[in-house]
Amino acid sequence: MLLEELLHFFIIPFILGIIGGMAAYGFRWLIKAFETLYIHLDFIHRDTFYLISMPLLFWGSHFLVSKYLRDHTNVTIDEVAKKISMMSGKFSFLKGLFVLFLTSLSIGFGVPIGREGPIAKLGGLLSEIFLLGVKVQRVNLPIYLSAGVSASIAATFNAPIAGIIFGIEIIIGRINTYIIVPLIVATATATLFAREFIGDYTAFYVPPLSYDQSYYPYFPVAGIFFAFLTFLLTRSFNRFQKLRRRHWKRWPYVVVVLGFLVGALIVFEPEIQGVGYDYVSELYGDVFRESNVFAIMLAKVVGLILSIGSGIFGGLMSPSIFIGSFGGYWLGDLFAQYGGHFDPRVFALVGSAAMLAGVTRAPLRSTIIIAELTHSYQLLLPILITTAVTAYLVSKTVSGSYFKRSLLQKGIDIENKNVEAFLDNCTLKGMVEKVPPLHPNTSLNRIGKIFRRSRTNYLAVVDDSQKLIGVISLRDVRKSSLLKKKKLTVADLMSPQPFAIHEGHKKEDLYKALSMLNAGHIPYVTEDNTYIGMLNMAKFLKELTLHQQSVELRDKIINL
């Protein structure tokens, strides 16, 4: 028993931490190797060489991916998290190698993309290979895979707390010491490994910054601005994805043009090449003119859209931090011209976190990443305010995105079009059971008898006009011993103002029910809150699953 606990809490997480640190270190080494290779290949020794190298790189990447990979989708941290949540791993070894090679090649040659998604993929893949070798219990597999991926993220950003938060997000809904301790051990080990072999560094240097109360009205405005930029990015990526599918025969020629355009952008604005953290440091050193900051930000946005849109593998987090820094600096300077004496570097730092929060829809994780990256903890409150505004506005543009993470834990991918179509068109009345309701004055003894006869652990409570006023569960009955009253009734135990599904329900109501509630039955009411019955959630999930499987099977037959 002791050995089993030591393996779970310390030994396996320690090894996963080493694997995560090695993944981050190896990936950086590979990028450096390709940077050196590019220097040797550059026979022109001028930035105009990008006009030649970028089209060739884009075409070569497209050729290799099209020829050898069945799954052409980009690898992001969210995709890695989804893989763990939905499938407990099963990472493709071939795609992992391709992502490692092509992303490091692209960044080394100057493509304006990030490395975080591919590093998370590599950390997850190597962790899975190790875990298959030691044959751990399947129930623990998501915990260990989350620890391995979190370790690689922590080592990449030199941010152990952010790595832990990311791991928690993957396995949300099951948080306890049994999960937290392995995450801490793995991320701490990976961070120590990275600091030993890469250095105890900040990603970019930020001098001590200060602000006062006059800044606060402008932080929400900054949040709105970065929400707009995030919306522009995501809509552009989706548009390019549709274009790739529609014009797949012509795409080899299209990627050459896109590569040339990215090369031209780098020629005009060399700061956008690669990850670009060195230039972010220069931004905080007031090296750039205000007039040039906006042009650099815009070039990075367009370069990122064209690169990811063409099908290049790469991360979005580092480019988001770059865009947020330059965009925030420009915005801060704009505020200073019209609002008062502001330090634009404050808005640069806040902007880096806000843009990251918009892309990842994870405001807390983004805040911690930027704080740990830069050691700028004095700006935590402004960063939290701005990231919350950005993440909220971005989530409003995508139905159900508030509940995405927790729904993945139940095997429901709201980004799947089949799932969305089912929720749009499903008829719930056939899944509603006629469970008799209770009244507020029903005694505790009477409640027990009703629960014994009922097939549900939840009962609705209605008033004299059959309007829903509460819900009572077996758990509420168990808690009745805590109430020191001799005669208990439903009114004493029920949960008032309960959540219910209305006849004219919205899709978000179903998302909330599936995500937030563990109830087997949920009250179903009319628009005026009149009780109809209890919606059987097990039957609803069964219908959703069977619909999704039938549509996927039909699509496979059509594609044969």
Structural overview:
With 560 residues, this protein is mainly alpha-helical. It is 65% helix and 5% strand. The protein has 23 helices and seven strands. It has helices at 2-41, 50-68, 77-87, 93-108, 116-134, 141-157, 160-170, 177-197, 218-246, 251-268, 277-284, 290-310, 317-339, 344-360, 363-374, 380-396, 404-408, 417-425, 444-453, 474-478, 490-493, 507-516, 537-559, and strands spanning 432-433, 458-462, 468-473, 495-496, 501-502, 521-525, 531-536. The strands form two sheets. A four-stranded mixed beta sheet has the order 1-7-6-5. A hairpin with a 5-residue loop joins strand 6 and strand 7. Helix 4 runs antiparallel to helix 5 (116-134) and helix 14 crosses helix 16 (380-396).
Secondary-structure-based class equals mainly alpha
- Overall radius of gyration: 27 Å
Oligomer class: single chain
Largest sheet: 4 strands, mixed
Strand order of the largest sheet: 1-7-6-5
Strand fraction? 5-15%
Order of SSEs: HHHHHHHHHHHHHHHHHHEHEEHHEEHEEH
Number of helices: 23
The total of beta strands comes to 7
- List the uncertain runs: none
Helicity, as a percent range: 55-70%
Overall pLDDT score: 87
Shape, per Cα inertia axes: globular
- Spatial gap, N to C terminus: 52 Å
